[in-house]
Design brief:
The chain has 5 helices and 7 strands. It has 219 residues and is α+β, with helices and mostly antiparallel strands. It folds into 2 domains: 5-85, no CATH class; 122-217, Immunoglobulins (Immunoglobulin-like, Sandwich). The chain is elongated, with a radius of gyration of 31 Å.
Length: 219
């Protein structure tokens, strides 16, 4: 439907005459590409760029073109297929190699698609207290992952350890926040928070905020 059938039906509907089977197949593939491009514009305008939308589009084009071809009285005859050709050993070898390469590329594409995480991520932030309490900072995690995650959180104040939170569990779509008290000083302080995944202990996110002097002096 994507590479040949719809294009073949369109060629029959518009009455394109081809002189050989190879020429017909090439024209059909080209017509199918045109159908796919037109479908992209149409489905995007209809906000229906989904697998179901593409299936409906190709089936609708194929059925409509087939009906037009059946109604036409001057639809050209299909070119005759060539007689059975003898395939040589090296030709068969190249063909099988091409099949293996295409199959491997498809398998890699499926694997990469399954591992693609374009919209699966974790937000991480560090701000002065959301409730406006002086001498406190708020650290938060919001998960858009597909499964529950555990994180380790380390917080420093002016590069000195302030707090460590281990195995923080966050469910998909869930939000976790915690207020952390900070000592009052007469000078601005820089707080930094780091987010780690316990399974590999690698840095996943890093955020920081500057605590103004007025926030600390309010205590």
């Amino acid at each position: 439907m994507v590479f040949l059938v719809s294009g073949h039906a369109v060629l029959r509907a518009i009455g394109v005459r081809t002189t050989s089977a190879l020429q017909h197949v090439v024209y059909a593939v080209g017509a199918n590409l045109a159908v796919g491009i037109a479908g992209g514009f149409a489905l995007n305008a209809a906000d229906f760029l989904t697998p179901l939308g593409w299936a409906i589009w190709f089936w609708a084009v194929t059925v409509a073109a087939a009906l037009v071809a059946a109604i036409r009285r001057d639809t050209p005859d299909l070119p005759a297929w060539p007689a059975r050709a003898r395939v040589r050993l090296w030709q068969g070898t190249v063909l099988m190699l091409a099949v293996f390469v295409a199959t491997g590329a498809y398998a890699l594409a499926v694997r990469d698609e399954a591992a693609h995480r374009e919209f699966k991520y974790t937000e991480f932030w560090l701000l002065p207290s959301a409730r406006g309490e002086p001498g406190r900072i708020t650290v938060g995690i919001r998960s858009a992952e597909t499964q529950a995650q555990r994180f380790d959180v380390e917080i420093t104040l002016d590069e000195q350890p302030l707090a460590v939170l281990r195995s923080v569990a966050v469910a998909p779509g869930g939000t976790w926040t915690r207020d952390i008290p900070v000592p009052a000083l007469a000078t601005p302080q820089r707080a930094e928070a780091r987010l780690y995944r316990p399974e590999d202990n690698r840095l996943y996110r890093s955020v920081s905020t500057l605590l103004p002097r007025s926030l600390n002096e309010a205590r």
